[in-house]
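A note from the maintainers: we've had questions about how concatenated examples are separated. There is no special marker in the raw files; a new sequence line simply starts the next protein. For clarity in this README we add a label.
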Amino acid sequence: MAEELALGMSELTALLLTGDDVAESLCAVADTVARMLPDHPMTGVTLTREQGTIVGGSSDAHAMLMEESRFSEGYDPGLQAINTAQQVSVPDVAAEHRWGGYSMRMLAYGINSIYAQPLSVDGEPVGALSLYSTRPHSFTDRARRAATLTAEHLGVLLAVATGTARQAKLTEQLRATLASRSTIDQALGILMAERRCDRDEAFDILRGRSQRRNVRVAVLAVEIIETVTGRKPASPHFAEPEEPSRQRRRS
């Protein structure tokens, strides 16, 4: 069991820290968790984001979860785990009366017990790890401890992956801003040469055209450069910072 958990943790690390999109990795994450936990339960991973909730399931649970998302009343064990930051145990689905018609739908899928563990980043619940079994009372103390350990590891990985994605987005936004500024500077230089004026006057001219045509300054700047040079402005080059190991080798 310990060896399966260790191997699974390694696979989860690779999945979440090397994937381009956390959401696209959820099904693979669910499959990995299903393999590493006792009795290999059907597994679902739910994440909450500004644009809505996203769900991924192991290969034997994904179709069920996608179908359930069409009929869900917006509340189920996974969402309760997220909202309360507490684990939710449903030992016998047939005896469960929470969440409206949820239990009846789960029974129709053949699901008889459920266990949901919140996923937290920096102490805030951001998702849930949900386990499903066709047998009642399936999730023993041993299985719940393994699920808790796995959820804690997933929370750490999600924090790193989310931070990395956020930093990449900020870097891309900064590059776009710098590229736009470079284009505007080139257009201002052209206007200064044509009108024999200083930079402030050139910018007033560019801004006035922008307001009259209701077109962004950056778009007008591209038009000015293309009119004069006959081609689009070249994109500025951004030097990537060297890795510390490379810097040490060069020194």
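[label: protein 2]
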Amino acid sequence: MKNDLGKERIGHIDRAMLIEYGRWRAKKGAGPVTLGIDIGVIKMIITHAEAVHGLGISSEPVDLARITLKRLGLIGKGTERDRQLTRDELNRLFRCFDDNARLTLPMTRIVKFAVATAMHLDEIYRVEWRDLDVKRRMLPIRDRNDPRNKTGTDQRIPLFDATGFDA
């Protein structure tokens, strides 16, 4: 965005410019979710400039451009994915991690744990050893992302070997 819209003065960015930008990004291969994120970032920047710095600009053109881009089918939800990695794909990924001498995180262990628990990376990083209930093989996840709610919910998950990776 910096290369494409960064030359423009923030107060000159209008609805038509954003629609044209959206069309151009879509032609270059940006999908509906990516373009939605782009427009969201632009709105965040303009809203910040308006609220924090008192610039006399409005985020309304961004909202209007978003509506147009949605109706054009350029902004929307992503396609649902249901394919799982094969064992061979996972092993190739693990070899890549293990062969990279510059990698300092135990990525193979992290990915195996993620596969075994269906936890997101940010959830894994929030786990503390004191959370683990070894006897019951349970692990609480605080503030777990819930796609139906704005706020997360606390959950307890069982740690068992259903995927071939023992959590």
